[in-house]
User: Fold this.
Amino acid sequence: MSGVLVVLEQRAGNWNRMSFEALAAGQQLAAALGISCSAAVVGSGIAALGTELASKRLDKVFLVEHELLGEYTSDGYVTTLEQLVKQAAPNYVIFPHTYQVRDFAPALATRFRRVLISDVVAIHAEGDGTPVFVRQLLQGKLNADYKQTAEAPAFISIQAGTFRADTVVEGAAQIETINPAIEASQIRNKPGERFRESASTVDLTVAPVIVSVGRGIGEADNIPMIEELAAALGAELAASRPICDNGWLPMERQVGSSGQTVAPKLYLAVGISGAIQHLVGMKGSKAVIAINKDENAPIFEVADFGVVGDLFEIVPALTKAVLAAKS
Amino acid sequence: MKIIVAIKQVPERDAQIQIAANGKWIDEDDLTYAINEPDAYALEEALQFKEKNGGEVIVLCAGPERVTSTLRDALAKGADRAIHIEADDLAQRDTLGVAELLAVAVKAESPDLILTGLQSDDLGLGQTGVVLAELLGIPHATIIMQVEKTDTGLRVKRELEDGWFQHVDMPLPALLTIQSGGNKLRYATLMGIKKAKSKETNTIAAADSSEAAALKLARVYLPEKQKKTVMLTGTPEQIAAQLVEKLKFEVRVI
Ligand SMILES: Cc1cc2nc3c(=O)[nH]c(=O)nc-3n(C[C@H](O)[C@H](O)[C@H](O)COP(=O)(O)OP(=O)(O)OC[C@H]3O[C@@H](n4cnc5c(N)ncnc54)[C@H](O)[C@@H]3O)c2cc1C
Assistant:
């Protein structure tokens, strides 16, 4: 095949929302290199998803079905995809960078003595040069260009929001059904039901204004200072993950990949560095204001207005000014 | 139960980062280092597991001489002994190369359980644990918040996206990658620091890498901004006044 193979993610017949971003990445990489693009979906009882994919501009759709793939396990997926990659022989295998992909794709790449280029934020490719895959280092403080020096296949996972799902090109493709050889005895882990910790009583997704606090706040005793600013602005209070992990604010106020995804009119980030897992939860906000003492903090990359300074000086002054403006 | 915790030393979170002259990595000269945060949680999980179920906790770290300070801290917190794989050329090895180094040391110990952080704060590839499990031929689970011993092996609580979780039952030996925040981290006590001095650190030389790396880090640089950020400056009062203007007339939330 020697083209691009995109492995999409689904669960119980529903697409993961990042699947089509990965498909857009695959189509664009293939177009830049002048090679073909195919896609695969793995699971059990997923014929409808294959039909949906067949309406995209693809060389082939691999419908990879087995009853042991109904529920995700790393063993099931690695065994299956090893067979598929050997059979289809792509040069590039592309995944969305989901928690599930993090769980199995490094092991899959190891079976080919390759290393997954994980969490890619940009691809530079043209003609027959080796493509450059851009990843973040040091929690977003730096970018790095990676190249594969080994022969094909290369394995790449694409970070959320890097490519737009609505740029996927429509077309027509043939479906090839594949029934991988897997035995129940090869699957060592037994996954249980999915569950949520507690019913959420705070719906941050509808809040027009959010004041969000991060580890820059130092300790729990300082949280009331942020609460006062939120109250002055009539805003909901939110937080980065470490604040919720520490129990300084309840889990339901966490924004990010393992918390809520918000898109308010204003997101005011106080003492938050802007790690990618936080950014994916808030970068759809209409306006972002960031207050951080580190001028290189990645949160400034998505901020409309930025203040480099000590939050303990800025926040009280801002609360006072907001209250004065409102009265 | 014999538990190995694979830990990494990384630049401290607040460290000022400078790009190295060759543009391929950061300047390491004046950097201060600390244990990778998720690895600190992996160590904590191992120590609590040992307190409940008995056994031994061994910390394992590959890297140059400086990483022994991180191993000593782990011993002071309660690990029983340490293994240092001495290697000055980790930057030339990719994830597979580093995992192969770790695999050699792990195999010699035949542990029941291997824990590591889910990703490193510097490279952030999030793969070393999974690749190590694959090389060892044992099952793994990633992004783990809690670990419990069962009659047949382990039951772990795995984090999924958007606030969902799942329990997974798995046999031993196994490898888990641990998420930050599941436990409260302990501090080393004075007693612990004293005791650490008499604990054993086994230093082993890294084997030369058997194969060329599959990946190359070609260049590091500051990220380009996605948005034009207007930076506000002045005294706190002046900044507050400017922000209120923006909130009133541009963002329109006052
Ligand atoms: C699988 C996975 C899922 C995750 N899910 C989430 C998630 O859903 N949500 C989330 O937020 N994170 C999540 N994380 C964690 C994420 O990677 C970061 O560790 C986290 O977002 C960092 O939080 P922070 O910005 O508050 O802390 P830090 O990164 O420690 O940043 C603190 C910031 O405060 C600044 N600061 C310090 N003192 C002051 C001061 N006096 N004045 C002004 N600024 C100051 C510092 O310059 C720094 O930029 C996840 C990680 C993983 C691996």
